[in-house]
């Protein structure tokens, strides 16, 4: 076999494995919220069938909000310390699920979900006896700063930003119907969009988390079925409110989050396209060298 043909085969094999390595990476992750004092587990979630695969234990209990920082891909969650009930902000290591505390929220109530805006500000939905509120969380201290009341009862909803930084909420409206709403990021006020449809309403579903897939902007959600301990991965049409069910997650997932495929990194690394470009340059250089050697040998 000629050297050029061998080199061509090697080149295409390299490109194949580069593409395969990136497509195989998990993109959706989640945490569960167990009953009692059991600490929460961390999972990767298959977006095609909904199945959650165990990665590791966080070491903290009652994790109800989780998201990745859009610029660094560091994972943050709101949980409780073992044996306690107050909310604390933690960081989660993606490879093993281990949690490390940042600090207490010092909020009056309990956070049901969190979501990062594209500029890296972490928003949190807080359920309190005096009324639900929207706020932000300081990533250095964990402290919760209230923005304002949502005008809704304690529905413990899921929240998630769209690609264009609209803050959606899936939860109960004032009529106790599971609905899609928008939260005002300056005042906290919730605005009704539409009721959610195609849900098993006879099983009392409740959305616990929302997040958009960065590659295409599709809004994903996770909801639990009341009294069963089951949770379902789904997508939500933000215009019609139609819910497309993907599959059972196999764990009581309380929050989901997508990795950002193009985060800002403090240390430059080759992207998928960078690796492919490098392979092409090396391939071209090798062809050039082979051709020169061939001409020299002929001479």
Provide an overview of this structure:
With 299 residues, the protein is of the alpha+beta class. Helix content is 16%, strand content 42%. The chain contains 2 helices and 19 strands. It has a 7-stranded antiparallel beta sheet, with no helix packed on it. Strands 7-8-9-10 form a 4-stranded antiparallel beta sheet, with no helix packed on it. A 4-stranded antiparallel beta sheet has the order 11-12-13-14, with no helix packed on it. Strand 8 and strand 9 form a beta hairpin. The longest helix has 27 residues. It is globular and about 80 Å long.
List keywords for this structure.
299 residues; alpha+beta; Neuraminidase; seven-stranded antiparallel β-sheet; four-stranded antiparallel β-sheet; 19 strands
In short:
The chain is α+β, with helices and mostly antiparallel strands and 299 residues long. Helix content is 16%, strand content 42%. Residues 16-24 and 265-271 have low confidence and may be disordered.
How are the secondary structure elements laid out?
Elements: H1 3-23, E1 28-32, E2 39-45, E3 52-68, E4 75-80, E5 87-92, E6 99-104, E7 110-116, E8 122-127, E9 133-137, E10 144-149, E11 158-161, E12 167-172, E13 178-183, E14 190-195, E15 205-212, E16 219-225, E17 230-236, E18 243-248, E19 253-258, H2 272-298
Antiparallel strand pairs: 1-2, 1-19, 2-3, 3-4, 4-5, 5-6, 7-8, 8-9, 9-10, 11-12, 12-13, 13-14, 15-16, 16-17, 17-18
Helix pairs in contact: 1-2
Q: Give the neighbour order of strands across the main sheet.
A: 6-5-4-3-2-1-19
Which structural class matches the secondary elements?
A: alpha+beta
How does the major sheet shape up?
7 strands, antiparallel
Level-2 CATH architecture of the largest domain: 6 Propeller
Assign the CATH class of the largest domain: Mainly Beta
Radius of gyration: 23 Å
The first-to-last residue Cα distance is 22 Å
The 3D shape can be described as: globular
> Please, what is the CATH homologous superfamily of the largest domain?
TolB, C-terminal domain
**What is the H/E string?**
HEEEEEEEEEEEEEEEEEEEH
Note poorly predicted spans: 16-24, 265-271
The beta-strand count equals: 19
CATH topology of the largest domain: Neuraminidase
* Percent in helix: 10-25%
* Count of discrete domains: 2
Helical element count?
Answer: 2
Task: Bin the strand percentage.
Answer: 35-45%
């Amino acid at each position: 076999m000629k050297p050029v043909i061998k080199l061509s085969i090697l080149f295409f094999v390299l490109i194949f494995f580069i593409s395969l390595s990136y497509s195989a990476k998990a993109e959706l992750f989640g945490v569960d919220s167990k009953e009692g004092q059991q600490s929460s587990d961390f999972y990767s979630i298959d977006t095609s069938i909904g199945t959650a695969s165990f990665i590791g234990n966080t070491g903290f209990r009652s994790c109800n909000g989780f998201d990745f920082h859009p610029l660094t891909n560091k994972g943050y969650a709101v949980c409780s310390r073992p044996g306690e009930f107050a909310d604390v902000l933690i960081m989660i290591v993606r490879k093993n699920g281990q949690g490390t505390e940042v600090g207490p929220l010092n909020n009056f109530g309990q956070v049901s979900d969190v979501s990062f805006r594209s500029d890296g500000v972490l928003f949190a939905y807080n359920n309190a006896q005096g009324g639900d509120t929207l706020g932000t969380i300081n990533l250095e201290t964990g402290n919760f700063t209230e923005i304002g009341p949502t005008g809704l009862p304690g529905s413990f909803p899921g929240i998630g930003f769209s690609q264009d930084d609209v803050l959606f909420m899936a939860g109960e409206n004032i009529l106790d119907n599971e609905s899609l709403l928008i939260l005002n990021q300056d005042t906290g006020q919730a605005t009704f969009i539409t009721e959610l449809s195609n849900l098993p309403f006879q099983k009392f579903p409740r959305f616990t988390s929302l997040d958009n897939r960065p590659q295409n902007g599709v809004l994903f959600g996770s909801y639990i079925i009341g009294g069963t301990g089951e949770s379902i991965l789904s997508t939500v049409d933000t215009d019609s409110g139609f819910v497309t069910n993907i599959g059972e997650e196999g764990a009581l997932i309380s929050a989901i989050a997508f990795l950002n495929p193009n985060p800002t990194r403090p240390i430059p690394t080759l992207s998928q396209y960078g690796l492919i470009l490098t392979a092409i340059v090396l391939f071209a250089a090798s062809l050039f060298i082979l051709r020169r050697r061939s001409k020299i040998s002929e001479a």
